[in-house]
Design a protein that fits this description.
Strand content of chain A: 5-15%
Strand order of the largest sheet of chain A: 1-2
Radius of gyration of chain B: 38 Å
CATH architecture of the largest domain in chain A: Up-down Bundle
Number of strands of chain B: 10
Number of helices of chain B: 11
Distance between the termini of chain B: 24 Å
CATH topology of the largest domain in chain A: f41 fragment of flagellin, N-terminal domain
Low-confidence stretches of chain B: 113-119
Largest interface: A-B, 56 and 63 residues
CATH class of the largest domain in chain A: Mainly Alpha
Radius of gyration of chain A: 37 Å
Largest sheet of chain A: 2 strands, antiparallel
Strand order of the largest sheet of chain B: 3-4-5-6
Mean pLDDT of chain A: 92
Low-confidence stretches of chain A: none
Order of helices and strands of chain B: HEEHHHHEEEEEEHHEEHHHH
Largest sheet of chain B: 4 strands, antiparallel
Structural class of chain A: mainly alpha
Number of domains of chain A: 2
Strand content of chain B: 5-15%
Distance between the termini of chain A: 34 Å
Number of strands of chain A: 8
Shape of chain B: rod-shaped
Mean pLDDT of chain B: 92
Oligomer: heterodimer
Number of domains of chain B: 2
CATH superfamily of the largest domain in chain A: f41 fragment of flagellin, N-terminal domain
Shape of chain A: rod-shaped
Amino acid sequence: MSKLAERQLRLQQQIATGQRITTSSDDPKAMRRVLDLRNERSQLTQYQDNISTLRENANVVYSTVNAMKRLSDRASEIATMADSSKGHTALSAYAMEVDQLLEETLRLSNAKHRDVYIFSGTKSKDATYTATRVDEKITGVSFDGNSNSAKIDIAPSTSVDGNFSAEGAHGFLKNSSKGVDFIQHLIDLRDNLTTSADTSLIKDDNLAALATIKGTVIGNLDKDEVNFIDHFSSIGATLSRLETSEAITKSQIASIEPLVSNEVDVDLADSLVRLNEIQNAYTAALQSGGLLMKTSLLDYIR
Amino acid sequence: MSGLGIMGTMEMARNAMQTARQGAEIAGHNLANAANPIYARQRIKIASAVAIPTDKGPQGSGSEVARLEQIRDYAIDAALVTEKSVTKYLETKQRQLRRAEASLGQTLDRQSIDAGESYGSYGVAEGLSSLFNSFQSLSANPTSTAERQTVIFNAQKLADKMNIVDRRLSDLQKSINDEEDYEVDDVNAKIATVATLAASIGNTEIVEGAANEIRDAMQAALEELSSLVNISTTTNKDGKLSLFVDGYEMVTDNAMTGSVKLYTDSNGMNFIADNRSGDVLPLQSGSVKGLIDVRDGPIKDLRDQLNTLASNLIAEVNALHQAGFDLSANNDSSLTFFTGTNAGDIGVNSTIISDPRKLQAASTGETGNNSVIRAMAEVGDTAISGLSNMSFSEYYGNTVSRFGQDVALTDTQLIDQQAVQTMLEKQRDSVQGVSIDEEVSNLIIYQRAFQASARLITVMDTLMNDILTMKR
């Protein structure tokens, strides 16, 4: 009866907790497997978090570059519209607008997300650009970031770049090998427009400035725009890769759960049936014990 | 005239009544001890009384109680003394291993949902996962002070858990060690009891026959002593008992000649030693052996393995951290991440706790560099030579699993051993246990015998009366 009572207690515990094993002595091998599976699951969940972080950063960069591209579009539009048919006032207004585009570009290039400068590479606590100003107008910028990138793990032995840079081989705003230098090209556009609108200069100087816009600046702005588009593709490809990795990671996490369940969870139907059997056996043992004690030769002593 | 005659027959009936009464008394004595586990049932041995010679040949003269017998199987008794010693050894081992398992605190609880963990209470396994995951998380946001705080929090939580587990296991070892101290007095007291009982049996049986009740007490005393230490006994031709504890003679010819004493080694670990020679008793079974085996076996191994885990964690993480740069682009090669040397004293450096910016996560002065913290995260998956080329989680999983196997093996051994002991106890009960039905049957037989003898006296009395009234 004591053995039956012990088995009943064990089954009741299993049914109440839904678990076949609670401590390592219940099933040492299964415990080891479960600890390994839990560690794997925990790592995968962390990779998922890393992917979320990377996706978030990439989306922020994407939307910032998208805003820059809109500025580039407008700058190219102004550069195309600026010709000798426009009067000084109009050209002056264009110059002022380009100056505002320049200011906005500087603001966007110094954008921060979660207190990190998104285009400073791994010098992420340093502002990307510091502007040099003459009469409050931007005449140049100095890059305070770098083109380095930290690797962030998204799966075992798999990582992606976690940083973006305004300059360098993968620079968003300046890439010397491709002739890309958006800020400088905006400065050039603004300055040439200002020159073309300057009534104190001789006509030829005005026309020469407009010719520079047509001959050089528009071409440079086109290169900047192509660079932005290239980066859209690059960010899109990264996001796609991250989405794929996330889907794989999710499915890996989902596939671990049944494995843990197989090791740990109790088969309720089976346990309930066994509990019922043992309870019946326990009741029978009690009854037979009672019957044994009920009838005795003591009853026949007179 | 030959034979007993009327008076002689009445005398024979009176003797038979006394025999029946004594038989009923013994049956009553047996019934009174029906629930006494150490009691061996008794019975009277009835013999025919001396025959009287007559001219027709010898004539029986009734019956008498020849002696009182105790039904005892000494082979089963001896086997039980041995088996109870083994059972107690395993019971003690199991009890202490269960305590150690609880101290380790590594359980599965799928119903509790902890923050960041889908299941399970917080053990060292969860602590290791959380720490390496927070390293990984910081590597994705190396400038984030919030992530640095999380790293420090998880490291402190793991260190605290290791400290607590080590302290619990250390307390358990100490408590077992103290228990050894108490056991010495208990062993000596029980040796003295055995010697006293042996002497009583000798004295009683010289003058009064079988010392049945004292033999019951002796068996109980031997079983109690064997539950502490493994013993053996011998009896010489005079029936005098000698007792040996693990081969060392403690009782010689019914007299206590030896005892045990506490021996404490250079590490403060207590053992039981022979008082005369000073030899430490290696012991084979009994609760004392169980205590020593658990203290110096699985619990010590568990502590050693946790210490190995902690010391390797400290070394691996610190080596990387000391080469890194903090958020202010400074390198302090003396700044460790963890302090301490083992599971008992592992902690997080207070400099880092007070200023998380000082956590040296970068390999250069660039704040967004994550090389060091990423390498620290990768340590979690790296095979460490100091951990038998296993990763931290593998090593800990192995430790838990191995300890679980020790507990499970002891459980299985105990179940088997209890089956052996139960079988022997049943055998002993079948030989010397009191059967109420059998005793009541005997009671009825003695009652009827008594009634029949009483009737014989009535008949003889009638005959005598007839003789006395013949003259009228």
